[in-house]
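Journal club side-thread
Mid-discussion, someone asked how the predicted structure for our own chain would compare to the paper's figures. Pasting it here so we can look after the session.
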Amino acid sequence: MTAIDTKDALFQRSGLPDDLLFLLQKYPRDRWGQDITLTDMCQFWIQRHDMFRELGGALSGSVVMLREEKVDPASFRQWFAPRVNFLLSQLEGHHQIEDTHYFPSFQAAEPRLKRGFDILDADHHTIHDLLVSNAEAGNTFLKGLAEGGDALKYASEKYGREADRLLAGLMRHLEDEEDLIVPLLVDREGMGEILM
């Protein structure tokens, strides 16, 4: 079993291995959108990731506000439930499309990045498990909102831990995925012919 197969690999790394970043060195992140023109596909990819980042951060921050009694539990429930369901379902669907369509096409286009796509695929399995745990904790949290008192306190603490872990893993994964994929798309000018 390799390091990429372990459940905690996502939380143990601070980025992709240097040997997988040869295209990122050619097209560095700090030049994206400046002198490195991002294709429509790149922009779409980054926008989806930014939506996950923003919504994940908002959900995590909202739980803190609830614990600090800065928001009414009934109003919070109405705001929280549809957003957490949207985030979880969108992440799952996004990863399924990447695993079945995009990643195989990208890997075929640049075989030297195979190990990078294996890492991202392993991340998806870890994130799937985090999504399941998050959904379970979220359901308990919503019940705690209705009950109030200690049930709410314990449920909000558990959900907060689950949400923070999901968000931490997701942030690492999204950045690594962009570091691998955006330079590849730029290098191959969007890879439109491969993705059709």
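Post-session note: The mean pLDDT is 89.
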